[in-house]
Amino acid sequence: MKNSGQLSLNLGNGSRSRTPPPPGQEPANGLYFAILPDQETAARSFELAGTFHRQYSFSTKPRRKDLFHITLYQMQIDPARELPEDVAFAAMEAASTIRKRSFPVLFDRAVSFGNRDNRPLVLWNKDGNAELKALHRELDEAVELTGFKRGREKLVEPHMTLLYRGHVVPDILLEEPVSWTARDFVLINSLYGKATHDHLCYWTLHD
């Protein structure tokens, strides 16, 4: 495990209260495990997002390069029952049990995801990126052992979002796939509405 120097875990968006918020209040942040692209891949993905933004007249701008990621597993936070810090430490405990080798990630197309008025444009692989799904399952099982699992985890469809609130476009086959080798995964604290991702800890995928 490698930490980012942020293990004080002030996850309450400024609040240091040890009392959970009132019932019904939404959490101010989300905690999830993710795979990050390397710098070269992030730069290329940003260029692709800009090209598609112009080509298909999307109204929203592409995501920043530092926000690109593949969500592996979302930690469910119930504000009425637990503090984000407790969930974060449970997530770290679960991740510390993972023993997995590095593996290739490959996206061969850009597609429209979602429904209604939010149709994010994402990078996706029709063949599913089996290693990403396998890591998701291992994390799901590890989190269950900590007691912080909230019901059945939904099926995961590995993807990397280029921009949000787009519109439906035909699948875009890439002339050259977006690919890199995943060598670690990270626990991210995402502050809702702030476009801010704090990287709390990394875990190495060994060669």
UniProtKB/TrEMBL annotation:
> What transmembrane ranges does the database entry give?
none
- Which spans does this entry mark as compositional bias, Polar residues? 1-18
SUPFAM superfamilies named among the record's database cross-references = LigT-like
According to UniProt, the name of this protein is 2'-5' RNA ligase family protein
**Which keywords are on file for this protein?**
Hydrolase, Ligase
Presence of keyword Nucleotidyltransferase: no
Specify where the region named Disordered lies, as residue ranges: 1-29
Q: What's an example of a GO molecular-function annotation for this chain?
A: ligase activity
